[in-house]
Automatic annotation (TrEMBL):
Belongs to the MscS (TC 1.A.23) family. Residues 33-43 have a biased composition (Polar residues). It is found in: Cell membrane. It is a multi-pass membrane protein. It comes from the Bacteria. The chain crosses the membrane at residues 219-244, 265-286, 298-318, 339-360, 372-394, 415-436, 442-461, 495-519, 539-562, 592-610, 616-645. Residues 707-789 form the Mechanosensitive ion channel MscS C-terminal domain. This is Mechanosensitive ion channel protein. Residues 1-26 form the signal peptide.
Length: 848
């Protein structure tokens, strides 16, 4: 791998890796969308779909042969192998599309042959000639499709095999590059010194000639490219400061910042500022190259220079964010001030050595210098980094036990010091023994990969800290959201969980591609991985498309929101203005809701690429379990649909069931909510309302009859009582006059004359108040007219028992036996005197 390309990929991936997935997903469906109609049109004009598929397979075979030749010819060029791998993957998808395109026609043929049936056997009546002809034609066409499909499967296997060969070749090439050994001797160093002098003079001459040419003929394009790059970077940087400004700068007045603030500022300041500089460098290179300012020999050097600047800046931002040499209260690790400064300086020095190594290597490659010069440069860089690691292991960076950052620090933990010395000595020994490429690779990973991993880990810690319960509300962003949208504690806590997940996702999306690029992957590899991850995740024989699933979820959400909008619009504009009954409005809203959600679910599942026909087998396998385990749920669901369609009662009706009496508040597919007059909500399963008797006081309308029973004494005039009751009820405005109120003389009671006042009301909801007012009026009028309301009467008989000798027992000591009798006359008995007692049966008080 050339150093220039590696450095550019390291610092451009923040923009390219994110765009790679979207680019792959945007480009991949185009052949299906654009070429399919073209193929169909050609097939309808010239050949059939089978002939078109056969021709496409022949072309694919030729392309496969060309790719195999390319792999054999360019097996030592990793960049060429990456390009061939991309073409191989694209060829495999096109062959798969050929096979998939023939499946609908094959299914049609199978279904038609099933309808025609088998040909008649010997001794059976002959079938019609047209049937035989159609069967033979369909059988022949099926054989052709099977043959083409078989060729496609064979070709797909060959393409997969070629992809595996390319991957294995790249692995071997990577290992050979790392383990390539070069003799290190005095003569080699002497040759490198002479080559370095010659390279320096050639580079100065080439740079001077290029600058003279640019300033004389390309000055406007050069300054325009620089200006546009600066504008782009400033726009991104200013936007980042406007959105994340409070997370980019540390407050000097904050003496004890919280852990979450330290994490957030460390992560976002490193990420956003590095991204802004990377954007400036990328756009500068892009505009300079687009305006033809860069010559072919200068372009890789400028690219390596931009990469070196980006690398040094990233490590500088990383060390400042994590170690905070001058601000110990913002430090993320327990180091002393001197230790933080020394470790940051060591990391920055190693980054500078690595960046200069790649820059000088790019210059040597552009100038055509001997390979020995690049080897010696990398050797020197590896030795310097090794000595820096060994020197750092003897430092005392750890925070003192008393916690004072200004105090002299403590030594490294013993294990850490040993690791640093082993790494430093290993780099030195590896480089001196001739494995310069391996030493150079390890040195790069120690610095850049370590910094990226730690930054990603800080991002994950930040997301985890913000996601903690009751933490996001204490941040400035949480307080802003609470004030702006008036969110409660639960809502702001859920928002914190979402924000934490987004921060973790950003850290992973940025960190993982960078690490993969450092370990030998190319941009094309990441694009291919992203495309397969988003479109072709395979679990056994099932292919899952994450893009399809996301599209299905978005379509379902859109259909759900559209359904809710239609419900609100119909309810508030159409039915409300038409004065439609509340129950009808509820049924229409519920029905539209179920229909819309069902259609949205079907559209979402279809868009996700899930074949509903594949679910038939699963549904049949689960039908028995559903029948037994979910029969009550299914019964309630069907009963709910019946209630919504037949509407035996609706929302607002006054119903009486075996378990509750009250007003219907809500009818859903599983249960109905009934609110009692004591404001208790009772959830009744729909199946009980369907299978049991339910009384509905307001089924047809709200009109109903109300009764008031009245009892008077036997001394009262019945006609006068009836006249009083009718007079009082006719004075009530809400009582209907048709049918008119009337009084029924019901019976001669045991101690009263019983009447019942009956009248009709337009709304049974007014019955309780009307009856209450009428009872008060009746009581007042009866008192004025002298009509008595009798009390319940009962006769109690006391039997006095004689003593055993025959004499009478004193009254105070005689046991008494109480007996109720229905007669009201006085009686004499041998046991004693019977007194008739009157009393109130309601409270049990007796009256003599």
């Amino acid at each position: 791998m050339r150093p220039t390309q590696l450095l550019l990929r390291i610092f451009l991936v923040a923009a390219l890796a994110t765009a790679g997935a979207s680019l792959a997903s945007a480009q991949a469906p185009q052949p299906q969308v654009e070429k399919q109609p073209q193929a169909t049109e050609q097939a309808s004009v010239a050949d059939g779909p089978i002939e078109q598929a056969a021709k496409a397979l022949e072309k694919a075979k030729q392309d496969l042969v060309a790719l195999e030749d390319g792999v054999r010819q360019k097996g030592d060029d990793d960049d060429a192998l990456v390009a061939l791998a991309g073409k191989t993957d694209e060829l495999g998808r096109s062959v798969l599309n050929i096979s998939v395109g023939l499946r609908p026609r094959l299914d049609q043929i199978k279904n038609r042959l099933g309808e025609l049936g088998d040909p008649p056997k010997e001794g059976q009546p002959a079938e019609a000639e047209i049937v035989t002809t159609e069967r033979n034609a369909l059988t022949a066409e099926r054989a052709q499709i099977n043959a083409v499909t078989g060729d496609a499967e064979t070709l797909s296997a060959s393409i997969s095999k070629l992809g595996n060969v390319i991957a294995e070749t790249r692995r071997q090439l990577f290992a050979a590059t790392l383990l390539r050994r070069t003799d290190v001797s005095v003569s080699v160093i002497d040759d490198a010194a002479r080559a370095f002098v010659q390279e320096g003079s050639e580079f100065v001459q080439a740079l001077g000639s290029w600058l003279g040419f640019v300033l004389k003929f390309k000055a406007f394009a050069f300054f325009a490219a620089i200006f546009m790059s600066l504008v782009t970077a400033l726009v991104l940087l200013s936007g980042g400061y406007r959105i994340f400004g409070r997370y980019l700068q540390r407050k000097e007045t904050d003496e004890q910042p919280s852990y979450i603030n330290r994490l957030s500022i460390a992560f976002w300041s490193t990420l956003i500022r590095t991204f802004a500089l990377t954007t400036l460098l990328v756009t500068s290179y892009f505009f300079l190259n687009s305006f033809n300012v860069l010559r072919p020999d200068i372009a890789p050097i400028i690219g390596a220079l931009f990469g070196a600047i980006g690398l040094i800046y990233f490590v500088r931002r990383f060390t400042n964010a994590v170690f905070a040499p001058k601000e110990p209260q913002w430090r993320l690790v327990k180091l002393s001030n001197r230790g933080a400064s020394s470790i940051g300086a060591c990391l920055l020095a190693m980054a500078i050595v690595n960046a200069l190594d790649y820059l000088f290597g790019s210059i040597s490659e552009a100038m055509g210098s001997p390979l020995v010069l690049t080897v010696v440069k990398s050797l020197i860089a590896a030795l310097i980094i090794g000595f820096i690691l060994i020197a750092a292991s003897f430092g005392r960076p750890m925070l003192a036990r008393n916690g004072d950052p200004d105090a002299p620090g403590r030594h490294w933990p013993r294990g850490m010091a040993i690791i640093l010395r082993v790494l430093g000595a290993g780099l030195i020994i590896t480089a001196l023994t001739g494995y310069v490429g391996l030493a150079r690779f390890v040195a790069t990973q120690l610095i850049i990969t370590g910094a990226i991993i730690v930054t990603t880990y800080i991002g994950l810690l930040s997301g985890k800290a913000i996601s903690r319960s009751e933490t996001f509300g204490e941040t400035s962003l949480g307080r802003f959201l609470q004030k702006r949208f008036k969110l409660g504690p639960v809502a702001i806590d859920q928002a914190g969980l979402l924000v934490g997940m987004c921060i973790s996702a950003v850290a992973l999306i940025v960190g993982i591609p960078l690490v993969l690029l450092l370990w030998g992957f190319h941009i094309q590899d990441l694009e291919l991985i992203a495309y397969r991850l988003l479109t072709e995740v395979r679990l056994g024989g099932i292919s899952i498309s994450l893009v399809g699933i996301m599209t299905g979820v978005l379509l379902f959400a859109g259909g759900y929101l559209l359904t809710r909008w239609i419900q609100r619009w119909l309810d508030s504009n159409v039915m409300a203005r038409s004065h439609v009954d509340l129950g009808v409005r509820n049924s229409v809203k519920t029905g539209i809701g179920y229909l819309g959600v069902g259609l949205a679910a079907i559209v979402g599942v279809s868009a996700a690429g899930i074949d509903l026909s594949n679910l038939a087998l699963v549904a049949s396998a689960l039908s028995v379990g559903i029948g037994f385990g979910l029969q009550n749920i299914v019964s309630n669901f069907v009963s709910g649909l019946i209630l919504l369609v037949e509407r035996p009662f609706k929302v607002g009706d006054h119903v009486v069931s075996g378990t509750a009496e009250g007003i219907v508040k809500r009818i859903s597919v599983r249960a109905t909510e009934i609110e009692t007059f004591r404001k208790q909500s009772i959830i009744v399963p729909n199946s009980e309302l369907i299978n049991a008797s339910v009384g509905n006081w307001t089924h047809r309308n709200k009109m109903g009859r109300s009764e008031i029973p009245v009892s008077v004494s036997y001394d009262s005039d019945p006609q006068k009582v009836m006249d009083i009751l009718l007079e009082l009820v006719n004075a009530v405005p809400v009582v209907l006059r048709n049918p008119e109120p009337h009084v029924e003389f019901l019976r001669f009671g045991p101690y009263s004359l019983d009447f019942e006042l009956r009248f009709m009301l337009a709304d049974m909801g007014d019955g309780l108040k009307v009856r209450n007012d009428l009872r008060i009026a009746i009581l007042k009028r009866f008192r004025e007219e002298g009509v008595q309301i009798p009390l319940p009467q009962s006769d109690v008989v006391f039997h006095r028992q004689p003593d055993q000798v025959g004499g009478a027992t004193p009254a105070s000591k005689a046991p008494a036996k109480i007996e109720d009798v229905s007669e009201t006359s006085e009686m004499d008995d041998e046991a004693g005197t019977v007194r008739r007692l009157r009393g109130k049966s309601a409270d049990g008080n007796l009256k003599g």
